[in-house]
Amino acid sequence: MIRTDQRYDVQVDVLGTIVFMLTRHEERGPGAVLDERGRFLASASIFSSSGWLQWPVVDMYVHVFARLLRLAWPRLPVREPSADPLVLGHDVDHPAWPFYRTPTARLRAAVGAVIHRRDIGLAIRRARSLRWRERLSTADPWNTYGYLMDMSERAGLASTFFFLTRDSEVPAGSTYQITDGWCTGLMAEIAHRGHHVALHGSYNSFDDQSRLVDEWRRLERASTVAAASALRPAVRQHYLRWRPDVTWRAQAGAGLKMDETLGFADALGYRAGTARTFQAFDLAAGRPLPLRVRPLHVMDSAMLQHLRLDDEAAVTAVTQLARRTRTYGGALSILWHNSSLEDEASKRLYRAIIEAAA
User: Fold this and answer.
1) What residue ranges do the domains of the chain occupy?
2) Rounded Cα–Cα distance for residues 237 and 164 (Å)
3) Is the pTM of this model over 0.85?
């Protein structure tokens, strides 16, 4: 910034940067580098080497711009950024151990709990849960919904559980039925405890409006009796598959009101440069869409599988993001799967992360 008498010249294109980040302009065109699932990864971003993906640059620019306005016009009322509550979401990819891949893969994983993790108790619980009785077993290591709700309630928050309503159509997918008794019973419990239910768009729905319409209707029908009061017209796409303009256009056309997909599968941080919700914009058509966007900042698999952070590093990383979010406003959004809490160590880590962030 250069000051000349009463003039302030800002040497940064503030508005251009905001549009660039919110519309994900760098992900457009044939030059965008995508992974095997068609996702734009943080490692392909022009900001990856600078560390700027771990800062809410849009919110920071707005913060600075507001102060410049106050310098020029001291009496101009400028609203200070407000830190919203933490946002917690849980994608129900594999609701219970018997839904995980094939019987052979399940048996191999149960044995692996002993050989690789030296956790005989986990192996026993995995094996016991294979005797599927059309209800969620208390022994099932992935039946952690009560724990997730407990942690949210301790923090004074309400979680949102995102359910698949059609097969995810990949070898590692889950084929549970949203209309099964155990599932409607789970949604009823979620509603009873004051939490929410939303749509987890299937693997091939990210660019298919008609498919999203069908999937949303299935969720509406399944939750009419069980959890109608808990239903939110929100969506998070499976595997975070998302494409500029295309996905938001399909979601808005399907009547959905909130997209919570916009995060990285291989990193923590601010993919859209913000922790605030904002209105989706179809840049190709040059028009806003009747859809709000809530960015995603922290995902368990990105943290533990891609980045391979240990517990201390994971808590430190989330703490830094939470501080930056509180400073510049908005809400830190965390995605944690029910299947990521199958032993006491993983539960302790999640508890520590929620305490650090909240």
Assistant:
1) 87-95+142-357
2) 9
3) yes
